[in-house]
Amino acid sequence: MREYLISAPMNELLLALSRGPLADPPWQAFLRLLGEALDADYVTLILRAPREGDSGLVINSVVLSPDAVNAYNESYFALDPFVNLPPGEVFTVDAFMPPGEYYQSAYFRQYVEPTGIRHIMGADLGDELGNTARLRFARVAGRTNFAAPERELARCLLPHIQQTIRLHARIARVESERTLFAAAVDRMALGAFILDRRARIRHSNSAGERLLAEGRWLTQHEGQLRLVHRSDQQAFRECLDDVMQAHLRGEPGLVKALRLDSGSSPGPGLLMRPLPLVAAPDGSRNPSVAVFVSDPEYQREAPVDVLMTLFGLTRAEATLSLLLAGGATLDEACVRLHISRNTGKSHLSAIFSKTGVTRQTRLVQLILSSVAPMGD
């Protein structure tokens, strides 16, 4: 049977790599260990190359000086000739380009040489998804250049580094999308809660936090989402049990809706749906149920500038439209805007003409169903 042995230093290096993107500070512990493995004085990971107007994302194992880092990120990156290496291969400067050309370049003489660095080895990474990175290793003057053993070790580590960058980029994209969609739900004045199998709150958006803070309809007890009124809580638990069972059966299509009792006026509406099953060691803590809460008393808003762009309104017309969409009558809106009713009617006529609607109720529907609230 073949033996798979990993030395203690290599084990430490690979563990640091797996923790690299989420470490504090990110990547630096791994880069320091990588520098020790390759006997490099400095290691640099460039996750986003600098360009005009963008200093990029450059991480150094050791910071020579803030001035040196800023100088490269702001100007010298444009002079660097040791770029665009064939992906997945490891080169020293001497093997990549004529040594005389490099050591006589303005980049080396004005930027590299004053730092005391003499020898540089590098590799570029890239995959079909567009995840790219650059690794650069440096030794100071007076030391020998990087040799075949260092180049081979670096080459063997490249696929592991590429995969870690790829996974982290995927996580970052998912998180970015989640943040964007969560913000969109907030703009719609929807409270959103993610509950586990014990009805404990695992996540809530800002609109949900506002509803909890108000305490009129929702509260939490020992981390569990509760409804304030007993009759609402009983109906909520019955619906929640049905949705939870659908989650356990792997039926994410089930939806349960509930209107809260608020007496004469319409109360908030709740919608519950199961989340897909997720494999994890502790299934009880898995996200299980999504709960959305819509409060009819909460006014959605949209920025004036977005309404002006969407419908060609003047600022005065857009401001009036927002007040009407928020539930104000024309007379109430005129008072708040300190304009006469005749001026308000003139604005409203112009709004109707520009939006193509003829009734105030239709105007409110048009604004609230447009993308305008998403721009708040």
Please tell me about this protein's structure.
The model has no long low-confidence stretch (mean pLDDT 85). The protein folds into three domains: 8-175, Beta-Lactamase (2-Layer Sandwich); 188-294, 2-Layer Sandwich (Beta-Lactamase); 304-375, Arc Repressor Mutant, subunit A (Orthogonal Bundle). It is an alpha+beta fold. Strands 2-1-5-4-3 form a five-stranded antiparallel sheet. It is 44% helix and 18% strand. The protein has 14 helices and twelve strands.
Concise summary:
By secondary structure, the protein is α+β, with helices and mostly antiparallel strands. The chain contains 14 helices and twelve strands.
N→C terminal distance: 64 Å
Average predicted confidence as pLDDT: 85
Give, in order, the helices and strands.
HHEEHEHHHEEHEEHEEHEEEHHHHH
Shape: flat
- In CATH terms, what is the architecture of the largest domain? 2-Layer Sandwich
Characteristic terms for this protein:
Beta-Lactamase, 18% strand, alpha+beta, 376 residues, 14 helices, Arc Repressor Mutant, subunit A, flat, 3 domains, 44% helix
Secondary structure blueprint with pairings:
Layout: H1 8-19, H2 28-37, E1 42-48, E2 57-60, H3 66-74, E3 90-92, H4 93-96, H5 99-103, H6 106-112, E4 117-126, E5 132-140, H7 148-187, E6 190-195, E7 201-204, H8 206-214, E8 218-221, E9 224-227, H9 230-248, E10 256-259, E11 269-274, E12 289-294, H10 304-311, H11 315-325, H12 330-337, H13 341-355, H14 360-369
Helix pairs in contact: 1-2, 10-11, 11-13, 11-14, 12-13
